[in-house]
Amino acid sequence: MTESSTGGPTTPSFAELDALSTEELRERAFARARDRRDVGFFWSVLRHLPDADEASVLDGSPNSVGPTVDEAVALWRELTGHGYEEAAPLLRAAFIDYLSKH
After folding, report:
1. Could you tell me if 79 and 51 are in contact, meaning their C-beta atoms sit under 8 angstroms apart?
2. pLDDT, tens digit, 9 for 90 and up, residues 10-61
3. Which of 37, 13, 40, 17 shows the shortest CA–CA distance to 28?
4. Is 5 helix (H, G, I), strand (E, B) or coil?
5. Pick from 23, 25, 58, 80: most CB atoms within 10 A?
């Protein structure tokens, strides 16, 4: 993150964000969303993961007790042995967009 002329942090440019790995973008976006308690962002990310409709780790009900989103993503990656595959461009765009706006 760069600093403005007043010394406070400014939003990173698209080029700065695009230069980061998808995993670094995910970590930054997830940290920001956790700080903001932005559950909607997490659900939108989970919907973009491959085989998201087959996932049952989080059922979406407000009273469900399940793993955190970070754990769900880590579990999915571990169980499938995949990275983000074909979803990577969409996820990168979502992470960059979120970090740019918030």
Report:
1. no
2. 788 999 999 998 889 988 998 999 899 998 888 888 777 665 554 444 455 5
3. 17
4. coil
5. 25
Provide φ and ψ at 9, rounded to 5°.
Answer: -70, 145
Q: How far apart are CA 74 and CA 11, in angstroms?
A: 27
Tell me how far CA of residue 77 lies from CA of 3, 26, 34, 85, in angstroms.
35, 13, 20, 11
List Cα–Cα distances, 52 to 29, 45, 59, 63, in angstroms.
19, 10, 11, 20
SS3 66: coil
**Alpha helical stretches, state H, the chain:** 14-18, 22-36, 39-48, 69-80, 88-101
Q: Cα 9 to the chain's mean position, in Å?
A: 21
